[in-house]
Here is the input.
Amino acid sequence: VAALIAERKRVLGYNCQLNYPWQPMAVVRGEGQYLYDHEGRQYLDGVNNVCHVGHCHPKVVAAAAEQLATLNTNSRYLHPTVVEYARDLLSTFPAPLRDGCVFFVNSGSEANDLALRIARAHTGAHDVACVDHAYHGHLSSTIAFSPYKFDHAGGEGKAEWVHRLPIPCAYRGKHRGKSSDPAVGAAYAADAAALLDGTAASGRRVCAFFAESMLSCGGQVVLPAGYLRGVYAAVRAQGGICVADEVQVGFGRVGSHWWAFETQDVVPDIVTLGKPIGNGFPLAAVVVRAEVARSFDNGMGYFNTYGGNPVAAAVGQAVLRVVRDEGLLAKALSVGGALQAGFRAIGEAHAEIGDVRGMGLFVGAEIVKPVDFAERARAAGLRGDLAQAGAARAEAERLAGEAGSAERRDDAPPAPWKDLAEAIAQLMRERGVLVAVDGPWGNVIKLKPPMCFSHADVRRTLSELEAALKLARP
Ligand code: PMP
Here is the structure.
């Protein structure tokens, strides 16, 4: 492995990322929800949302192999599979999208770039609104509205045509409460509308609002109820259109619906799809409302050499059939529900687990520093918020007595604990279960496993999580 790492560093771009950079995994085989490394060790894959129906699903492999052995070429020949696949894919959308059309591309970044071109063509406007900490792709267009990547030292930086809306996180954001509370959603939507009004007043016009329907890079955030409805209304009132990026969260992962935007009771004008629809094969798509798609015509036609090529279409069709035939939406609801409930139960016993959130097989847990009430009171005293140091000490003692109680003195969330989250993920990996850590403060344990994840896998994940938490805690 050391030699492979050294050689990889020599021949690949020096900063091409690996998972677990401190101890990269050399994986040689995948099957269902498992990955196998070069020594034959099995890992339960709790993270890989690309291999949606399971690593190397036999029906998907067979469809790819058969089509590859029969014909593969560019997408400009008449071929039935891509037409059948587009028709079936559209049938998973609500109206009016289901009466719209599909453009096939090869990656999520390409899908968002094409969505941007279509939005600009349709509206005549140029600017984009996005949610802070979002990631929408690595192209020079999409990186500009991907604060997750550009907003670091050495990052490309934000373009002047991009307007960033605050993360609508009900746990750690400006308006706190339950994500199911419409008042929280309305408060964030009102902030977004005010920001967009300011943008319009300064003479800039937004062609599109891009948002994931659950925030993955933003830390597995479930959007508060009514948020998208409010922001969509504000964007549309200014003549812009709304793009749902379902590259990570879509295709049945939420369990209750095919698409996560449906849980927010909105219908976007454009939806971008990627990762899961190809189960690991480079396949992505842009689904567009008919009227919007008609504006995208410069008289030259649209052409994408590999977008919707016969093998990609055969793979996409096979994946879609497996999701339907194996009832994976219902399974995501039941297995994902058990996973969230299990996280919550562990959180009851361990104060290091803060907010647990998600939908279906998209679950996140904040790892936090348990609140030290005495410390808080002392800090309040130091800030001069309490009349005198003596009063602060008395208050500290009183609050320290209450520290064991569930009631907190104020509604500020406990501080994120990145190091502990990373230690837990590392220990779980050593014990054969893969989870990711992400979010703006690097403290959210993320799970978004292949949809064949079972109740037994949930039990194993939870018991390893609890064991790792106990071991990692200083
Ligand atoms: N949108 C989202 C939400 C993503 O998570 C990603 C990939 N992480 C992309 C777009 C870009 O997709 P790709 O890497 O296939 O270009």
